[in-house]
Amino acid sequence: MHFTCFTLQDRLWTATQPLSETCDNPSGSYRKEQGTARPPHEAVSLASREEQRMDCRNEDNVSFIRLKTRDSCHALRLKKRSLAVNVRRQRLEEVVKKLKAPTTEEFTQLCLHLKKHKDLYALQKLRHALSSSEDNITVFLNCQGALYSLVTCLTGQDGALQREAACTLVNLALGNEKHCVEVCKQVGVYLVLHLANSNPDLQDPCAWCIGNLCGGNAEVCKLLGSQGMEEVLVKALTSHAPHVIQSAAYALTQYLATLQERIRPVSGAPLVRHLVDALSMTGGLPEVGWCLFMLSTDQEVCRLLLDQGIIGSAFNILEKLVNEQNLSVAAVTPIMRVLMNCAASVHGTAVEICYRNEQFVQVTRALLYSSTPHLQTETVHFLANVLNAASAESLTGQCVVEDLSLRPRLEPALRRALAAHFTLHQPEPQVSFSGVLR
């Protein structure tokens, strides 16, 4: 009788079947029956199949254990995370209460409470309420003694209360011109004094409050200017804390935007140098950029800006900004306008910009290809100022433009930007930054 040995493929296939099922062989089929004798060759084959079946079961057991262990660890992590989240949720109700703006009656009681109990929680609620409604500002100023109590907190010895009082004044300065004049008369001198100190935690909100007070209020600007605010703001721009530089630049921008006749007297070499250094140190902080833009609206100050190296600093920052994944429109816009003003105001500046060949082309092309219509428009104006001013140079300008091959490198991007502008029929966007409209 002839028996055929099982191949590896056959064994793998039959290892998943019960031994009671039929097995193929050339001479027919047979079933395992109790008491039926097996040939020796077939017995060996069945034994090897049984061993393989046990091996597969062992492998399945290991995989099952691994899976169960992984699931257990995952469940334990979820449990620990839920416990941690639930612990934080216990204070959620308190947070909601803090964020809820009080009613007029509640706010009035809060103002009266501040007169008797000067605590941190009351100041925090006041700060939030003042930012939610201008009517609350009127109620606060009409409450006799409330502003005096706030000044007491600002001039006290408790550092936490001082900072919170200054932050409350920041929101209080968001009122109308009459409100700002009243606040400035009682608090302005203390804001200037704290800004002159070397405590960054107080300098920051005090400078921001001054900026809010100065926005569009000529009377406030003159009053603060008479108290030495200009010198203090210039000094604050040398701070090692970026947030203090940001607040000081914001305050100076609002001050100069309101009293533009003070741009030239204030803009000495120290101020210009501090701002150019701050622009490089902060990586193009928008508040610093807008302050530089306010200075560049004066032709004489543009010369000071060029002497302090604004061209190199501006292009280095622009090169960095255009290579970032999320291009900051607020940071790029004022820097482009500073370069635009300098190129049109000072003889030879446009040629200097063109000589920064690679940086000039890289930055201009990147902004022309930008998906933001506003940046495309700003770049077209900038490019027009530079090329027109450079071409007007009788000796070197036109030659420089031709020698650097600017036209073939910039014309495709310029055509695309202009086509997008006229195709979409979009009006030129009016950019506003903290009350500065240009």
Average pLDDT score? 81
SSE sequence, one letter per element: HHHHHHHHHHHHHHHHHHHHHHHHEE
Structural class: mainly alpha
Tally of DSSP β-strands: 2
Annotated CATH homologous superfamily of the domain at 267-438: Leucine-rich Repeat Variant
What is the straight-line distance between the termini?
A: 105 Å
Radius of gyration: 38 Å
Uncertain segments: 1-38, 40-44, 429-438
Notes on the protein architecture:
This protein is flat. The N and C termini lie far apart (105 Å). It is mainly alpha-helical and 438 residues long. It has a two-stranded antiparallel sheet with strand order 1-2. The N terminus and C terminus are likely disordered. Among the domains are: 67 residues; 172 residues, Leucine-rich Repeat Variant (Alpha Horseshoe), CATH 1.25.10. Helix 7 packs across helix 8, helix 13 packs parallel to helix 16 and helix 20 packs across helix 22. InterPro entries: ARM-like, ARM-type_fold, Armadillo.
Labels describing this entry:
Leucine-rich Repeat Variant; 24 helices; flat; ARM-type_fold; ARM-like
